[in-house]
Amino acid sequence: MSDTRRVSSDTQYPPLEMAAASSLDKPSRSVFLGVDVGTGSARAGLFDKKGKLLGLSSSPIQIWKDGAFVEQSSTDIWLAVCAAVKAACSKAKVAPTEVQGLGFAATCSLVAVDSDSSPVSVSLSGDSRRNVIVWMDHRAVDQAERINSSKSPVLEYCGGAVSPEMEPPKLLWVKENLQESWSMVFRWMDLSDWLSYRATGDDTRSLCTTVCKWTYLGHAHMQHVNDNNSRDMEACGWDDDFWEEIGLGDLVEGHHAKIGRSVAFPGHPLGSGLTPTAAKELGLVPGIAVGTSLIDAHAGGVGVIESVLPSETEEHDKEAICNRMVLVCGTSTCHMAVSQKKLFIPGVWGPFWSAMVPEYWLTEGGQSATGALLDHIIESHAASTLLANRAASQDISVFELLNKMLETMRVEQNLSFVAALTEDVHVLPDFHGNRSPIADPKAKGVIYGLTLDTSEKQLALLYLAAVQGIAYGTRHIVEHCNANGHKINTLLACGGLSKNSIFMQEHADIIGCPIILPRESESVLLGAAILGAVATRKYHNLREAMKAMNAPGEVIHPSKDPKVKKYHDAKYKIFRGLYEQQLSYRSMIAEALS
């Protein structure tokens, strides 16, 4: 990273009030900018004060994959963010002076930088550009197992076990395998925190990232929930004994300087707002408010969980919000539910206090490969190229073509519902392990019912069975959460897969709950923009901003046909049995090799 792009934590910038009095004086309208850095792209979206999307743009980001190793570059990511923001403003015809607040959301990837904020390699290749361990990287499975064997009390707050996708196992892997890099790193940051740091020069961490991915105990800050200066909260939720016990005691040094000396509730204003350097790179005005960040899935939750009918948002909504679960469906799927009391649920992450909605405990389930699994099923099939060419010739997506094919096959076979096409095909979707509720990173995917058929129709069946397998996994998570204290009866969905009609209808039928889609489909971007809106102080708190900027759209109801329920109940039993069989076979082989 060149000197012109470098931002240090002690750089002095003009106060936000001074910038507001000059550059931001009397804007024609209030526009809030959300930035979302996903697995494959950086996206930017602009929203008005009612949460209506004005325009968006995206820019691809580079990714390196080698088996369990998945890496990115923070330099490349920032360049993509800048390109996306400038393009979004241009498309939406929004002037820089109209953008009042900015918020960031990103995958829970791990960023390493030195004392000059330059990248430090986390790659065995030694490539200094590759300073980001991507969320889905599974290099640290062994480290996660060793950390879990410690039985530390902090593990109670992440379902009893850390995942190799969380930060402590990844940090331990770097220390054990890249000692030179380990000694060079000055800051370890979650990607969304790094983005807000890059924009403001303030390295305050978010309660969302630290609590959900770093074992930080957020409830240590219960007394600060209404504190306007919460951005200055000293990080008192680290369990030093935990870090010492797992071999990372050096991260405790300097009041946890490398992993976070101060934390803040999502949406609290950082530093003096956008720095002049970052403003120039983004094409925005210095000093605009930047809110403390969120993980992308959690931003999706903020952008959708209040997207309900007005009758549900009246006086008794303190408990009503606890009956909802948000599905953030993209490369992976995250399942977000909140409760007023903490619920310890084996195999499900949390309870995380104020990690998404202030003053509520968050339960976070997840499936590590959903969109990624459907892409894999399609792209690895012999008919993939033919299907892609047909879809292109009709100017529709591959998913739209497959959905049309399935409906045609249903009619040809005189079936009363599409799901019945997969009576002989069953999929266990754990191709990248099981995150929830089994918490088994060694779980493997299963396809039952293969033949020598390599036609497009056979691919359509595999695709449908995989969609159903994913939905059965969500049903397993919902049932498990409800058996442990939740009362979930409504789902809300956002993300790319929520635009897929068969994916959504199968989920509604299989889980037996209505699914509400938000008015604005870009819920993660909206959630990030809401952080910027809260940082401007135009809203008293995050919940008020959510209610003002969330709105419902289409509602998908489960089928009323009892045959559909009976069919899925039977397939769900098969789904559960596929994992039990896998455990049995794993044990048999282990015994044979012992």
Automatic annotation (TrEMBL):
Gene Ontology biological process terms, A to Z: pentose metabolic process
Pfam families xref list: FGGY_C (PF02782), FGGY_N (PF00370)
GO molecular function: D-ribulokinase activity
Keyword annotations: Kinase, Transferase
Domain Carbohydrate kinase FGGY C-terminal as annotated: residue spans: 326-535
Residue ranges constituting the Carbohydrate kinase FGGY N-terminal domain according to the UniProt record: 32-301
InterPro entries, per the entry: ATPase_NBD, FGGY_C, FGGY_N, FGGY_RbtK-like
One Gene Ontology term, aspect cellular component: cytoplasm
Top-level taxonomic group: Eukaryota
Family: Belongs to the FGGY kinase family.
NCBIfam families xrefs: 5C_CHO_kinase (TIGR01315)
Designated name of the protein: FGGY carbohydrate kinase domain-containing protein
Organism: Vigna radiata var. radiata (Mung bean)
